[in-house]
# Entry
Amino acid sequence: MVSPNQVISPITIDNYGRMAWDNVVQHYPTAKKFFEKGNINRDQHGNQLYWPIEAGRNDVYITQDYEDVTDNYTMTRPYTNATLDWAQLAVFKAISKGQLKKNNGKEALVKWSQKAIPQMYRDGLVGVSNSLFDQFFNMNIQSYTTKVAFAGLPSVFVGTTAITWSSNSKEGTINNTNYGGLTCVSGGLTNVDNAEADAWTPTAVNTTSTAWADTAVTFRANCFEILTYAISASSRFSPSDMSLNPDEVVMTRAMYNDVAYQMNQKQTFYLTKAVQKKAAFGIGQDVSEGLEHNGVPIRWDTNLAANTGYVLNYDQMWLDFLPKMEFSGDKVGELKQSGDDESIFETEVRYNDGRRALTVSATADGQFRINPRYQTMLFAGK
# Structure
């Protein structure tokens, strides 16, 4: 009979980790965007995630010949650095000694390893609570103080203090004083010379403001105007550098249905000749692709909080991981770099005497890295 350790081996289980990651990348849009942009790094190092940002600009002068321009040569500091602590995410599975005895046929073990283990990895990536991409949409790292979490989008927008909303303003005021160790308040980067005011500041759009055209003061009534405003706030309109323009709008399903409703209401078709029985109608509405507005795709995601949406630029976001450490038969640790393994998980399989069970753990050490300037939140502020 095949032993449990032969069927459920570290190599086999780690293969499930790779397959789970590949499956999520192909079928979960947010993961796919990170992958397509090439912004997933698996070989970071150091006690903290540390990256430079360029926020300062040079003064430009009007000069003339024979003019002494000595005083215009000034030493400036155009750069600063953002830092974040590394986060760790882990999922665990155990099969008891009794289960191993009772389910000793090959079929039972295969079912356990091919069903429960892949589900463990999938839940770690896209599950409903504390998964990697649940944290991306919902985790404010400043409010999770007991351990270090992945710094999701709320870390950028809310941070240490809430957004100030006004019922008659289309935008909320960003008060976050600490994302990556830097203030997100407009004009707040005092450690950079000639800093651009919005160099580290995101945009927060109030979807229930009275400043929108329709007096109904709902997202449904004003969704086209709101989306146009939010997309333009996220765009830099650079034909030579598409990384400065937004990739998609992500929102709750209720908000998505509001947009679809308005699209249906606004469409009129004039038929000048007979059409085939299976003719399809509808602008920007494809079940497999989602909706679209101003050339930007729109989709919904179950991970988003109520009344919340985002206009996202994935060229300005990264998912960084520390290298994996794997142990060979002689227990010698080996760091696995990018290109060695496509799975983000470190997997350990062993028999635990204390639990009298075979235990499996999958761990990912990493952090999200986001450029706030190119991200926009949609929220029912006031």
User: Anything to note?
Assistant: The chain is about 25% helix and 20% strand.
